[in-house]
Amino acid sequence: MPLQRIKSLPDSVFLQELGKGDVGLRFGAELEQQYLLQHLQRVQVRVRVWFTFLAALNLGYSLANLALALFSSAPNRPPVVGVMIHILFSTPLTLAMLWLVWSRSYLQRYIAWSRVIVPLYGIVSGFFVAEAMTSGRLDELTSMVMFVVAPYFFAGLKFRSALFVNVVTVLSFSISALFMAMPDGEFLKSLVTLAITSVLCALVCRDAERMARRSFLETALLAEYGTRDGLSGLMNRAALDDHLLRVWQQALRDERTLALLMVDIDHFKVYNDTHGHQAGDSALRTVAQVLKGFARRPLDTAARYGGEEFVIVLYDLPRNSVEAIAEQVRSAVEASSAAGGESGARKAHTVSIGVAYVMPMINRTPEGAIQLADQALYEAKRSGRNRVILKGIDEFHALTTGSFRTVAGSA
Length: 411
What we know:
By secondary structure, the chain is of the alpha+beta class. It folds into two domains: 3-225, no CATH class; 237-398, CATH 3.30.70.270. It has a five-stranded mixed beta sheet, sandwiched between helices. 65% of the residues lie in helices and 8% in strands. Helix 11 (277-292) runs antiparallel to helix 12.
């Protein structure tokens, strides 16, 4: 995407993050939540496979060691008490994570649960691997390496969480090995192996997460660019249609009101022809910035409808509040354009606003609300401009969709 086109979205949080240069390992709170959701969806299959494998491995390991403890006569057979402790500690943790990754609450709960359960599992694993190796089962070092690698690549953790799990797992192993008096040669060999593995995994995982975060920002920026008007930076017409349909359906379900403010810059064509397109573009951007300030709630939005027309969608507000906001918009545009005008005396830009205050119904569509707002705007312009006309629920009920009606006797 060319840089000059990207700069048409100066308020984009994705562009702001990319503009910092190196992408960090944590975004702001709201953006971080978006990234986490995308991350969890991306790694879901991997996480499910890993914890299913881990549960099967845990079950097989427990049964095999229990059989050895009960029936083997080998001198290095595991003690029954040790096997039972392993089953009591590791099995519940494994089953809890297995249930979570296959449940419908995976996206909502995985991050919180994994921050507690995965480190605990690492501590338990480090202890029992050290105990097994001290008892002569040196091949268990392979299991320890697996427990070091897994948090970085298979458990779906972010880099910092994976690093923490790695550290506590290795510390658990090291402290347990020293406490159980593992032979120095085997202990040092194991520690060097785990240290090298940990460092390599950490470096690769850190770079992989940076790349994933940059890809997330770039993909989101491209998607955002497709929904934004290049000149004003507001939502474009296609995105407005999609948004309006979604909030219409939600308002229909929740029995809430919607308000559509159709905003038109007065005498814009004359101004644009007189002062040039650059001045006209500047006027459009000025108005757009004002309108954006009135659509900050999650379900509200401001969009460029086309030409010099804009739309503000307001969700679930009383009629008197909508009227007050429409008047504030009209006054704010006039004040803003007057304060930032070009060289040479001229009148401030003014806007006419048509408001449709409606209650969505099954037999009505968003297009009817737009038509009602358009009729109100027409009346505002025919009544002298620089004013607000509001049409409410009664007019919406009586509206004949597709039949544009004007005020009787208007010139």
